[in-house]
Amino acid sequence: MTTGDDIRAGRGFPISDVIAALACLGGSAGFFLLARALPAGHSTGDTGPGALPEQVGVFGIFCALAYLVLALRGAFNAEKPKFASGHRALAALAIFVVCLLTVQWIGLALAISIASGAVTLLFRGERRIVQAVATGVGVWLIAVLLFQKLLGLPLP
After folding, report:
1. Cβ–Cβ under 8 Å, residues 53 and 35
2. Can you list the residues of the chain whose pLDDT is less than 50?
């Protein structure tokens, strides 16, 4: 007979990491297929509205495959999550829910920058305030300069 110490779920095989990698792979593949269904561009040389989502889907597929390979090689076996850090995930979810609810009043760029700065505060480390401000400013600059100014996309 075997005892409870001999059998532990996922101890020798990282089943939760493999499941997460397969879920990411499936989600990325689905995103890519949905992007392929977008209409083609109308002018010569125009890549169409689906080019960027297709690239994001391909990047997601590559990242998910890399995660799957690393999980199967046991790269994450030494990293055991602490259950005490679960409150940070809930706090991050709450921050981004509040972010989504405030977009209509303060705008997307500002809401996302404040939310990303607030989530940065959840991590441990030195100079968290400086990192949070830098993250918020960086996200705001990306949203405004890249999407609004360079690509000409209207932000809510």
Report:
1. yes
2. 1-10
